[in-house]
Amino acid sequence: MSSHGITDAEFAAALAAGRVEAEAEIRAQTVRYVADRDSIEIVTTRNAGFLIPRHRIGALQDVPVEDLAKLEIWPDGSAIELEDRDIHISVDGLMTAILPAMLPTRTVAAIFASRGGKATSGAKRISAQKNGRKGGRPRKARKAIA
Q1: Which of 10, 91, 108, 122 is deepest in the core (most CB within 10 A)?
Q2: How far is residue 4's CA from residue 134's CA, in Å, rounded to a whole number?
Q3: Are 37 and 53 in contact (CB under 8 A)?
Q4: Can you give the pLDDT of all 146 residues of the chain as single tens digits?
Q5: The pTM is what?
Q6: Any long-range contacts for 86-90 (C-beta under 8 Å, 24+ apart)?
Q7: What distance in Å separates the CA atoms of residue 71 and residue 31, rounded to the nearest whole number?
Q8: At the top level of CATH, which class does the domain 28-104 belong to?
Q9: Measured between alpha carbons, how far is 41 from 33 in angstroms, rounded to an integer?
Q10: CA distance 42 to 57
């Protein structure tokens, strides 16, 4: 069996990748069951709160109310769980699935459209700037129909 040591550079790269992932994903800070609304409240690390009706979370629909008081957060905030029932729910996945269903269609479309047009790399940014100076993205050549 071979052992593989990790270099300082690999360790630093892993830490940096973890920080980027933590910034990109929605992470939970607190979670609790709100009985009078039959909902799950999640407060994220960005201090935004979400109150999600329990019936919208498939894994929790048939869980007795007494057990919902035992909801916990994973140490990194990436998931909520009910360990006794072996239920683990990704916070980022939950928000991605639930929020579009709760928001008006036009709002969801506007959010995704605004994200879709953003340049994500240096090469894309430079290309977009060059095309902008020329009056925008070049039009596609039309094919002659014979």
Answers
A1: 91
A2: 52
A3: yes
A4: 456 788 999 888 888 887 777 676 778 899 999 999 999 999 988 788 888 999 989 999 999 999 999 999 998 888 999 998 999 999 888 887 887 777 777 877 776 676 666 556 777 778 777 887 888 777 777 776 76
A5: 0.58
A6: 87/59, 87/60, 87/63, 89/57, 89/59, 89/60
A7: 7
A8: alpha beta
A9: 6
A10: 13
Cβ distance 94 to 53 under 8 Å?
A: no
Helix (H) or strand (E) holding 88: strand 87-90
What's the count of helices (H) and strands (E) in the chain, helices before strands?
Answer: 5, 6
Q: Report which residue type is found at 117.
A: G
Burial (CB count <10 Å: 0-12, 13-18, 19+), residue 80? buried
Q: Report the C-alpha gap between 33 and 70 in whole angstroms.
A: 9
In single-letter form, the type of residue at position 62 comes to D
- Hey, CA dihedral for 24, 17, 43, 89, is it positive or negative? positive
